[in-house]
Amino acid sequence: MFEGTGATVEEATGAACAAAGLAPEQAVVEVISEGGMAAPGERIARALARVRVIAMPAEAVRGKALLEDLLRRMGIEVQVRVRRLPEAPAAADAVQVETVLLEVDGTDLGVLIGWRGESLLALQTVFNLMLGEVGLAPGAARLIIDIARYRQRREQAVAQMAQRMAAGVARTGRPVTLDPMPPYERRAIHLALAGDRSITTESVGADADRRVTIRPADGSRA
């Protein structure tokens, strides 16, 4: 595992890949900090992006090539980058496996997102079937797709909402069950609230009706 810094995530990735002896298309990138513009008079080092890279798992190599080919056949020109995501805590509803993000960038990608992300969810389902996800060996990396960072923005919005709900649960002592959500949004909630000792989270229900319940931790009451 190698780290790199740069003015942008792309520059930091290039530096880390060079240190690791990997071509960018062979690496999985974990963004530690996206950096930002330095304020007037501020040392530029304080605004640097920082990333960590490892060699791309075989599943990610296969998935990236498959997704690029699928979108090219649809007549959509894109770039696909591969990133690692933090693991969900043990309380989450998924088996603890490495999660790899296939991040799609390009122009006019709204058709791949759809109303409230419905097209993105459909694309993920088709991709999973094409990849033969059910046949992956235990512990194999799980591949998820994001389009123009839509999933990332939704996760941030859901996490902020969950934190507000968790504060209310801790204050009143009453559990709250949220609306049904896709797996990645439930995962975002579990991650966002993992460090809050005043509450616990669990996923309940099945299939499309699966949702998150936020409960007070043992002995936590208003």
Notes on the structure:
The protein has three domains: 1-55, no CATH class; 56-148, GMP Synthetase, Chain A, domain 3 (2-Layer Sandwich); 153-216, R3H-like domain (Ribosomal Protein S8, Chain: A, domain 1), CATH 3.30.1370. The strands form three sheets. The chain has a three-stranded antiparallel β-sheet with strand order 1-3-2. Strands 4-5-6 form a three-stranded mixed β-sheet, with helices on both faces. Strands 7-9-8 form a three-stranded antiparallel β-sheet. The protein is globular. By secondary structure, it is α+β, with helices and mostly antiparallel strands. α5 (150-172) packs across α6 (183-193). It is built from six helices and nine strands; from the N terminus they run βαββαββααβαβαββ.
Keywords:
222 residues; alpha+beta; GMP Synthetase, Chain A, domain 3; Ribosomal Protein S8, Chain: A, domain 1; three-stranded antiparallel β-sheet; three-stranded mixed β-sheet; 6 helices; 9 strands
